[in-house]
Structures are given as structure tokens and as C-alpha cells.
Amino acid sequence: MALAAYLSAMAFIEIRYLAGRALRDEVPPAEALARIRMLADLCHNMPSSGRPWPGRRRRQLTSIEQAMRARRMSWVWNSANAEKRAWMLGHIEKARLQWTPPPPLPVTQPDAHGAESVSSEARPE
Fold first, then answer.
1. Model confidence at 115, in pLDDT bands (50, 70, 90)?
2. Is residue 123 assigned to a domain?
3. Mean pLDDT throughout 112-125?
4. How far is residue 15's CA from residue 68's CA, in Å, rounded to a whole number?
5. How many domains does the chain have?
6. Which of 20, 21, 114, 115 would be 26's cystine partner, CB 3.0–4.6 Å?
7. Where are the alpha helices (DSSP H) in 2-100?
8. In a domain, 85, yes or no
9. d(CA 52, CA 125)
10. What pTM was estimated for this model as a whole?
11. 85-91 long-range contacts, Cβ below 8 Å, gap at least 24?
């Protein structure tokens, strides 16, 4: 969780900096807003403090939910585009943190009864 908190803090600092530059006409507002939007989207996908997900207590977790619980940064990493991943890795490297990106999330599909099964794309050959 420390990594998510660190990256969120770095994003908030950059958002504040970009907003100030846009207000002082040092950067085109559209450019600043696009970057702010990217950072806000990235922070929105950061894992929370580890509290249970609402509505998840009474049913078995799917394999994707299990993977995200085991590696809290799985969703944010696997849903991030190249720009977001580069931003994350740049800050991780700058802070000299040790972190390995998580593997891809499992690919699942519901069967006829609504239970999940691993799709043929995710099965090893």
C-alpha cells in the first residue's frame, strides 16, 4: 500500500503544479487539463487502504478479484496505458523503490450457470 500512497502523493503534487502553471498562463490550459485528467484517472484506480470491497463478503471472489487482492497494484498497472505506466515507473525509479510490475490479470468468462471459468486465451498450451 505504501507504493500506492507514494504515487498518489506524487500525482497530487504534479496536479497542483500543473494547475498553477495553467492559471499563470505558463502552459496552455488544455495541455494542463489533459495531464491532470491522466493523473486523476491513475489515482482513481489506485488500491485503497486494504479495507474489504463493499458487497464482496457473501460470495466467493472471482479469480480477477483474488489476483487483485494478492497484488494490490494489479488493477492500476494492468488498466494503465503506456503513458501512465511510464509515469509510475519514472517515479518508482526516482525514489529508488524496488517494485516488479504484476503479471496480467486472469482472463475469465462466465459459464452457462454464471460461474467463472478461465477462457482458452488464458490457458497454458
1. low
2. no
3. 47
4. 27
5. 1
6. 21
7. 2-23, 29-44, 63-70, 74-79, 82-94
8. yes
9. 35
10. 0.72
11. 87/38, 87/39, 87/42, 88/7, 88/42, 91/6, 91/7, 91/10
